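Curious: why this fold?
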Amino acid sequence: KTVVMVSALAIFAGSLFLIRFVGTDFMPEADESQISLAVELQTGTRVEETIKVTRRLEKIIAERYPEVVILSSSTGADDE
């Protein structure tokens, strides 16, 4: 019984000593870096042309910034 108690206390004391070497961030901050880009083309531009421009921009961004993980785009009309 004494051996078990001494062993348990030794393990506990050892873990308290080692805790200073362990990082304390249980949930590290997430990298939420993002850029938002709005591109406006001339009124009356065909949807097909707008999609082409969007695809070209996506390609340029992907080539110049290989660290980009997700690239999302949408094409649509403004109701104004």
